[in-house]
Specification:
Elements (H helix, E strand, L loop, with lengths): L11 E3 L3 H19 L7 H22 L6 H4 L3 H12 L11 H23 L9 H31 L4 H7 L1 E3 L8
Antiparallel strand pairs: 1-2
Helix pairs in contact: 1-2, 2-5, 5-6
């Protein structure tokens, strides 16, 4: 069979555990709703921000305690390996990784950091010291736009990797399963 999506389940392997999948899609929904409620009256935006903060905190813990492919130690690579991988993307010769590839790892770190900065600046705006502070509001907006920009780049990366490796990565994030590693792939 040439189409990996049509292959039997015997040729797939569980990569993304249930926590990672629930975290991912909860974060997607949470950020979308938080963005929509940014200018609405009421506490919805703040409560969603706190919920996203709880999600990010849980994911950080899961990055140390979770299943094999959820662990930071499994997918965070050295700067040299990461740069080489980014160069290989430009040369259209990047290897397929069963878990996160080095570009995906950089994106995860950038998203977690920018989401944390957005939450921190949002929380600071509720304190006596920064309530109504225009600089803090601007910082919060810049961080939020940074999250959206990174999310857009993440989507581009997922589409690119899905096409290049003939693998539906969106489907994999729903099912948890990916095509088994071949001899040229990195586990």
């Amino acid at each position: 069979m040439n189409n990996p999506d049509m292959q039997s389940s015997k040729t797939t392997v569980r990569v993304w555990d249930l926590f990672v999948r629930i975290f991912h899609w909860s974060l997607v929904c949470g950020i979308a709703i938080t963005w929509i409620t940014a200018f609405a009256r009421g506490d919805t935006h703040q409560w969603l921000g706190l919920a996203i903060g709880a999600l990010v905190t849980a994911r950080i813990f899961w990055g140390f305690l979770g299943s094999r492919y959820a662990r930071f130690s499994q997918f965070i690579r050295s700067p040299g390996v990461s740069i080489q991988y980014l160069i290989s993307i430009l040369q259209n010769r990047e290897q397929r990784y069963l878990g996160h590839n080095p570009a995906g790892a950089l994106m995860i770190l950038a998203l977690l950091a920018s989401i944390a900065a957005t939450i921190a600046t949002g929380w600071l705006m509720t304190t006596d010291a920064y309530f109504g502070d225009e600089t803090m509001q601007l910082s919060h907006s810049i961080c939020a736009y940074g999250v959206l920009s990174l999310a857009g780049l993440h989507i581009v990366g997922v589409v690119l990797a899905s096409r290049r490796h003939q693998e539906n990565l969106v489907q994999a994030m729903f099912t948890g399963n990916k095509r088994q590693a071949q001899s040229t792939d990195v586990e």
